[in-house]
Amino acid sequence: MRRRKPTEGFILCGIFFWTIIAHLISTCLAAQLEERMEIVRKVLKEVPLIDGHNDLPWNIRKFLKNQLREFRFGEDLRDITPWSTSAWSHTDLRRLKEGMVSAQFWSAYAPCSSQHLDAVQLTLEQIDLIRRLVNLYPQHMALVTTADGIEESHRSGKLASLIGIEGGHSIGTSLGVLRTFYQLGARYLTLTHTCNTPWADCCKVDEPGRVPHIGGLSHFGTLVVTEMNRLGMIVDLSHVSVPTMLDALATSKAPVIFSHSSAHAICNSSRNVPDHVLKRIAVNGGLVMVAFYPHFVSCGEKATLKDVVAHINHIRDVAGVDHVGIGAGYDGVNLVPQGLEDVSRYPYLFAELLESERWTEEDIAKLAGRNLIRVFRQVEQVRDQLEAQGMLPIDQSIPPEDILGRSYCRYSGPRT
Q1: pLDDT tens digits, one per residue of 368-404
Q2: d(CA 44, CA 97)
Q3: In whole numbers, what is the pLDDT of the chain averaged over residues?
Q4: Could you give the CA distance from residue 122 to residue 119 in angstroms, rounded to a whole number?
Q5: DSSP structure string for 78-91
Q6: Residues in a beta bridge with 324
Q7: Is residue 66 part of a domain?
Q8: pLDDT for residue 137
Q9: Which CATH number goes with the domain that contains 180?
Q10: How much is the pLDDT for 30?
Q11: Rounded to whole angstroms, how far apart are CA atoms 416 and 158?
Q12: What total of structural domains would you count in the chain?
């Protein structure tokens, strides 16, 4: 029998010792995380968790051609094709409940390639899809169009479902279409997507070597923002250029939002918000809802939950805790941060924030939903004030020269 050398015994004892220490540390950290998770659960039972942007409706169109009879939203879609094999799928009712999501803005999206063609029709079909989806699950979902409705739905235990239109090209340069979308339940309009409209520049023009089309908002673009104020529709500045951000902030009488953007100072994507605009957001009373897409968070293909926390903290530092929210962008991205793999993971984000003494329960409540509800209420108050002042619908059309030379499908007869 070989005798064990004394050094081998010391090594084995050392391995055993550090194994015990690692286990104790792991147990302690797990206990601390569970304590913070309990605080998060308590907060989210009292305050609705509101996410500013989810692209599930477009995935339903992409995968199922909007045929909802084939869509099993109440089941775990990770077990059902084509969702189970798609990197773009992060959402179902089970995981929304696990993530304690109380309100979701669903995106009614039409791609930029539909501009000047059938963008209005596509957007109408996506609004119809969202409304039909909600109607299929009346025990779990409710269509909501007001700030009060979010809180009422939260108290009843239903997912408040709100409609946001992603891309100003969806209105077809018509304020009448904008008003119709509002009547159908849309409560925000993202002024552009990744393409310029005839009245607003998108974020692409801020990239090196690109030339602005307008330099912000045209005169008609300011009318769009003004009419949104009159209607009580939230102005969403995600996807727009920095000059468009500034023009919209100068025009709007109501707070504005970024439904799914992050901090430019941390990741210099043109989709993110620079510090000088964050300071203007604080003055405006608006809100930046932080996106989770790694290319907006780490400027690369990989990111972590801690990277998202860094963006939240930076926006808080510059604009204030009253001006930051959550707009993950699930189902519209094919990459997600480690630790935020789907809609079930929101509580872990809040628990991570609570690890810092600077974040209180009240702060978490603001980030989760109170900030958005405040903005929504102020938008409604501006609407009511303008109505009391006798403001009428704006009936101006876009000047023909603004669309000159475009392949615009347009009736050439009499117009208002």
Answers
A1: 999 999 999 999 999 999 999 999 999 999 999 888 6
A2: 11
A3: 93
A4: 5
A5: GGSTTGGG-TT---
A6: 288
A7: no
A8: 97
A9: 3.20.20.140
A10: 72
A11: 42
A12: 1
pLDDT for 150-195, tens place per residue?
999 999 999 999 999 999 999 999 999 999 999 999 999 999 999 9
Percent of the chain with pLDDT over 90: 87
Residue 57 lies in a domain: no
The whole-number pLDDT of residue 217 equals: 98
Residues in contact with 173: Cβ distance below 8 Å, sequence separation at least 6, in sequence order: 197, 198, 199, 220, 397, 398, 402, 403
Does residue 72 fall inside a structural domain? no
Contacts 24+ apart (CB under 8 A), 75-84: 83/59
Round to whole Å and give the CA distance between 99 and 343.
6
Q: What angle do CA 247, 114, 235 make, to 5 degrees?
A: 30
Please choose, from the candidates 255, 365, 240, 266, the residue with its C-alpha nearest in 3D space to the C-alpha of residue 318: 266
Residue ranges making up the domain that contains 305: 90-399
Angle between helices 56-64 and 119-136 (to 10 degrees): 100
Calpha distance 141→156 (Å, rounded): 10
